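FORM 12-B: Structure-to-Sequence Request
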């Protein structure tokens, strides 16, 4: 029996209200924006935060942290003031974050210092370019030691983080979850949206006939969830996530499908999974950015689902601004408060437009039913959540309820593909040797005009994925195949190109901006293969691939899709390698290099190909960094899965991490010989762990295990059975 994810607390830090309650009250007012030029770029965005509690949050948390984390900490502190997590086992508390750019404000400043020829060595802030840093910082502050992953799908990021957390709870992978979403403003964000012509010249007016674009804002939100049966004594069940629906337009990098088809399917999927009728929906919390194309597409989706019975709907972005990766969790919190208070927030600034129009004033429903919270992101990523505050009966003491571990067996690898410089050679790159993929050699049969819209990393992902699906003998994808990709640094070369161009020539490149988001590769795969199901990029440093694989397996088990393309890749970039990565490499490590590995996975019979391997075990947690403790955890995990340690034919680990793997070999109870270092196959990068399955497939029939440890102290254990 699947467990019910229940909201027990939440916190919010944004421009227009201090705390979740104040923010909800602010949503009934006029625009919360004070327009000022952002930096010296001449473009306008909300600057109210400089004089309000968002600025206060940054002062209160004066540690050397990115602004994004400080805002998140303010929201986390509010959430933890209302509920204690002390009754939960820390290893059963997961952290799931959603952000489009993470600590881009600080890394952008680091980029600038590097580009202007500053002193050699990476400014410390460069490390915050890794989106996973936000989740790691929250986990440490909260003392959570369970799963920890970050999801990046641009403006729907935190909505997908909520869905992933609920799925983890329902499957029993964790008992409680801290879900967070945050983004802050930076020049790349403001200049990027400006280059696309999407910024409004005044207060944004979602759904209004005179709307002309978005207002950019900042926010950090936290929602704490637990399994209903594990509700701590003294805690209140505040709301429940009934169901979710996630789809991909597979249409365009930035523009939605004109008819809103992807959004319509996401809403329909959410309602179908929650067994919800049109009459059950009392409020629709819209994405509603205020751009002509996005609002039109969303209205088409609304009418397509509800016909003449469109429920009351509104957008709060005229109050809070478009908070990008935080907008999903902000919408969800506003929707929860709307149901609990019995009052729906209006669309500030709306005058006239398409019929039926959004709420123009506060409206009190007769009784709370279900709210839908919708988020739409770059790459055509659509997410819909159904939220209820009805029938919230009490739970039981978490100490009195046991969990049942998830059995990973029954999901198979049907095809594999790689993109790496040495893919056609048995010779690995030597120590200190940079290994680069020849961009021109990728996808030789695709017309140049079609390929030119893709950057190198996108081509690597598409090439490896196409090889995997070809082996699996898959010809049609549609709604049945999801895309779950992993990357540590994303399209760092495109970010660098964008920043360098506007810093030097003051002429930002729109394509470089749209390609700079972490989810550009999975969206490119979906667009190329026409995959309309769930689409996401996961990032968790050296265990990024395991996070993406775990998500894909969960989606398949949950019935969200029949199969999945799972890929992990990173690219060489001189700025990242020279100024950030090189200093961290232990002696003897391979140089930071290009590489990508992709797999087609699914249940038996999901395609015409034959199964190559079965995924027998996959677990993620924060490492104790104690070799004896890690050895004991590995042995316990193998025993739970019914796998004898003696049956493992070979052990893999992604990278050399200051000798820890050698120390692990000295564990008192587990003796598995030596590790094969995957960086010797792929070069050193955050996605080296993606090559574990590829290495296993080349070794022959039997069990193969992989222990991955990230530099953020996250550990993953995977066992493959090659058939």
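FORM 12-B RESPONSE
SEQUENCE OUT:
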């Amino acid at each position: 029996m699947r467990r019910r994810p229940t909201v027990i607390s939440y916190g919010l830090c944004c421009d227009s209200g201090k705390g979740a309650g104040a923010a909800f009250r602010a949503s009934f007012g006029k625009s919360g924006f004070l327009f000022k030029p952002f930096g010296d770029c001449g473009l306008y965005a909300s600057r109210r935060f400089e004089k309000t509690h968002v600025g206060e949050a940054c002062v209160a948390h004066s540690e050397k942290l990115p602004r994004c984390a400080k805002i998140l900490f303010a929201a986390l502190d509010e959430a933890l003031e209302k509920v204690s997590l002390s009754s939960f086992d820390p290893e059963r508390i997961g952290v799931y974050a959603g952000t489009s750019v993470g600590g881009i404000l600080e890394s952008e400043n680091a980029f600038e210092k590097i580009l202007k020829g500053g002193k050699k060595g990476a400014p410390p802030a460069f490390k915050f370019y890794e989106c996973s840093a936000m989740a790691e910082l929250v986990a440490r502050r909260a003392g959570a030691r369970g799963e920890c992953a970050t999801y990046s799908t641009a403006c729907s990021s935190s909505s997908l983080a909520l869905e992933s957390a609920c799925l983890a709870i329902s499957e029993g992978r964790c008992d409680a979850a801290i879900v967070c979403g945050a983004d802050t403003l930076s020049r790349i964000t403001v200049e990027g949206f400006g280059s696309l012509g999407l910024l409004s010249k005044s207060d944004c007016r979602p759904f209004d006939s005179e709307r002309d674009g978005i207002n950019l804002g900042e926010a950090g939100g936290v929602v704490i969830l637990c399994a209903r049966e594990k509700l701590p004594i003294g805690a209140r069940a505040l709301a429940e996530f009934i169901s979710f629906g996630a789809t991909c337009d597979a249409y365009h990098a930035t523009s939605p499908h004109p008819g809103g088809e992807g959004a319509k399917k996401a809403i329909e999927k959410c309602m179908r999974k929650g067994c919800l009728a049109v009459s059950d929906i009392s409020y629709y919390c819209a994405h509603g950015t205020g751009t002509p194309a996005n609002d039109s597409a969303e209205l088409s989706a609304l009418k397509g689902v509800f016909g003449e019975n469109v429920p009351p709907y509104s957008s709060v972005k005229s109050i809070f601004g478009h908070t990008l990766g935080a907008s999903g969790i902000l919408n969800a919190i506003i929707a929860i408060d709307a149901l609990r208070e019995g009052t729906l927030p209006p669309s500030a600034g709306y005058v006239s437009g398409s019929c039926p129009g959004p709420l123009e004033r506060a409206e009190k429903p007769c009784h709370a039913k279900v709210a839908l919270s919708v988020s739409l992101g770059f790459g055509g990523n659509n997410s819909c959540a159904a939220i209820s505050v009805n029938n919230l009966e009490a739970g039981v003491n978490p100490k009195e309820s046991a969990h049942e571990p998830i059995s990973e067996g029954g999901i198979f690898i049907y095809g594999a593909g790689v993109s790496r410089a040495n893919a056609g050679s048995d010779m690995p790159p030597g120590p200190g040797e940079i290994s680069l993929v020849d961009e021109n050699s990728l996808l030789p049969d695709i017309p140049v005009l079609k390929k030119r819209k893709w950057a190198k990393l996108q081509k690597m992902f598409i090439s490896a994925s196409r090889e995997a699906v070809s082996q699996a003998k898959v010809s049609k994808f549609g709604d049945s195949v999801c895309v779950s990709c992993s990357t540590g640094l994303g399209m760092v070369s495109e970010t660098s190109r964008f920043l360098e161009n506007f810093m030097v020539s003051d002429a930002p490149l729109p394509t470089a901006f749209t390609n700079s988001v972490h989810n550009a590769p999975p969206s490119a795969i979906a667009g190329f293969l026409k995959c309309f199901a769930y689409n996401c990029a996961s990032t968790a440093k050296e265990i990024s691939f395991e996070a993406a694989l775990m998500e894909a397996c969960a989606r398949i088990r949950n019935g969200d899709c029949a199969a999945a393309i799972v890929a992990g890749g990173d690219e060489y970039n001189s700025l990242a390698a020279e100024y950030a990565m090189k200093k961290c490499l232990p002696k003897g490590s391979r140089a930071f290099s290009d590489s990508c590995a992709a797999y087609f996975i699914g249940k038996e019979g999901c395609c015409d190909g034959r199964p190559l391997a079965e995924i027998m075990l996959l677990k993620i947690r924060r490492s104790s960094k104690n070799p004896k403790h890690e050895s004991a955890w590995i042995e316990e995990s193998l025993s739970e899965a019914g796998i004898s340690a003696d049956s493992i034919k070979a052990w893999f680990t992604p990278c050399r991490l200051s000798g820890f793997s050698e120390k692990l070999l000295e564990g008192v109870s587990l003796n598995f010989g030596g590790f094969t270092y995957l960086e010797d196959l792929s070069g050193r990068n955050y996605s080296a762990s993606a090559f574990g399955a590829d290495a296993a497939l080349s070794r022959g029939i039997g069990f193969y295990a992989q222990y991955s440890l990230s530099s953020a102290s996250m550990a993953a254990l995977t066992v493959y059975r090659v058939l």
